[in-house]
Amino acid sequence: KMANETLKAELGNASWKLFHTILARYPETPSEDEQTSLRQYIHLFAQVYPCGDCARHFIKLLKKYPPQVSGRKEAALWGCYVHNKVNEKLKKPEYDCTNILEDYDCGCGDDEKESDF
Ligand code: FAD
Questions:
Q1: How many Cα neighbours within 13 Å face the side chain of 82?
Q2: Atom of ligand 1 nearest to the CA of 45
Q3: Which helix (H) or strand (E) holds 113?
Q4: Mean pLDDT of 66-81
Q5: pLDDT at residue 117, rounded to an integer
Q6: Higher pLDDT residue, 48 or 112?
Q7: What is the predicted pLDDT for the residue at 28?
Q8: Atom 48 of ligand 1: nearest residue by CA position
Q9: Is the pLDDT assigned to residue 114 strictly greater than 60?
């Protein structure tokens, strides 16, 4: 079995990847329903996150820095900001958020136009 720290890091890595990708694909001009969905998703993500200490810390961060759900750019920059707050706590380098949308391109850009089926 792998060391616990390695497993925790792998979980974090995979979770952040999905987290930032969702934010980078969020609508540019979301409806009220879409804003509610993203806000709830983020709060529930924090509540069910399987590393208890991480979850508790992240819930505190969400209270201090509430999710910005007004649009794609706002949401993605907010996500980058709170991840940097976690990086700071773990003494990891600060990430440059300048190209956050391009950094998390998921290759699903044509979803709205065409289907593979
Ligand atoms: P990660 O932090 O996992 O980042 C993965 C990749 O994302 C990086 O390689 C980089 O390319 C990119 N990246 C880095 N910073 C940013 C940013 N600001 N915006 C966008 N992309 C970025 N671990 C603990 O030990 N204690 C905790 O309290 C803790 N809390 C966590 C809370 C949450 C919600 C999550 C998802 C994870 C948490 N983790 C915690 C795990 C921790 O954040 C890392 O995921 C883990 O330490 C592995 O780090 P890493 O160096 O692989 O990079």
A1: 24
A2: 34
A3: none
A4: 98
A5: 63
A6: 48
A7: 97
A8: 9
A9: no
Determine the distance separating the centroid of ligand 1 and the alpha carbon of 113, expressed in angstroms.
Answer: 33
Q: Which of 16, 82, 84, 96 to mutate to test the pocket of ligand 1 (most atoms within 8 A of CB)?
A: 16
Between CA 42 and CA 102 the distance in angstroms is 21
Distance 100 CA to ligand 1 centre (A): 15
Distance from residue 8's CA to the centre of ligand 1 (Å): 10
Q: 41 phi and psi, to 5 degrees?
A: -60, -45
Q: H or E segment at 106? A: none
Residues in contact with ligand 1 by the CB-under-6-Å rule are 8-9, 12-13, 15-16, 20, 49, 53-54, 57-58, 80, 83-84, 86-87, 90, 92, 95
Backbone angles phi, psi at 109, to 5 degrees: -60, -25
The question of ipTM being above 0.90 is answered as yes
Mean predicted confidence (pLDDT) in 85-99: 98
State residue 48's pLDDT score: 98
Domains annotated for the chain, with CATH where assigned, are 28-103 (1.20.120.310)
